[in-house]
Amino acid sequence: VQLQASGGGSVQAGGSLRLSCVGSGITLSARVMEWYRQAPGLQRELVAILSITGGTHYADFVKGRFAISRDDAKNTVYLQMSNLMPEDTAVYYCSAAETMRSPTYWGQGTLVTVSS
C-alpha cells in the first residue's frame, strides 16, 4: 500500500493550491480519507475528513476555504485550498483508515508555504 501526496508549493497569502493523494495497492473509495498537517514545532492536526459515503468534515480553521474530494476513476483524493493564510504553512499528509481519526496508512507529506 502506498499513498503518494503531491501538489504542495509556495504561494502568497490569498492564493490557492490543490493537493493530490494517489493510492496504490489500496482503493481509496473504500476507506475514510483524511488530510492532516503539521507545522514546525507543533503537533500534527486534522484538517479534513472524507467518509466512504462522501460526507465531509473540516477543522474550524479551514471551513469555507478548503474542500476535500475524491476521484474514484483516478483513485485520488484532493484537498483544494483557497484563500491561503501564512498560518496554513505546514507539511500536509493524506491518510487512509477504516474509521475516522485512526489512520492506518500515511502519505509522505507535501510542504505548503504561504507568505504574507
Short précis:
The chain has 116 residues and is an all-beta fold. It is 0% helix and 54% strand.
Tell me about this structure.
The strands form two sheets. Strands 2, 4, 5, 6, 9, 10 and 11 form a seven-stranded mixed beta sheet that branches. A four-stranded antiparallel beta sheet has the order 1-3-8-7, with no helix packed on it. Strand 9 and strand 10 form a beta hairpin. By secondary structure, the protein is mainly β. The protein is globular and about 40 Å long.
Order of helices and strands: EEEEEEEEEEE
Shape: globular
Supply the helix-strand structural class: mainly beta
Most strands sheet: 7 strands, mixed
Summed over residues and divided by their number, the pLDDT gives a mean of 97
Taking pLDDT < 50 over at least 5 consecutive residues as the criterion, the unreliable ranges are none
| β-strand amount | over 45%
Number of strands: 11
Helical region count?
0
Q: Helical residue percent?
A: under 10%
Radius of gyration equals 13 Å
Ends distance:
38 Å
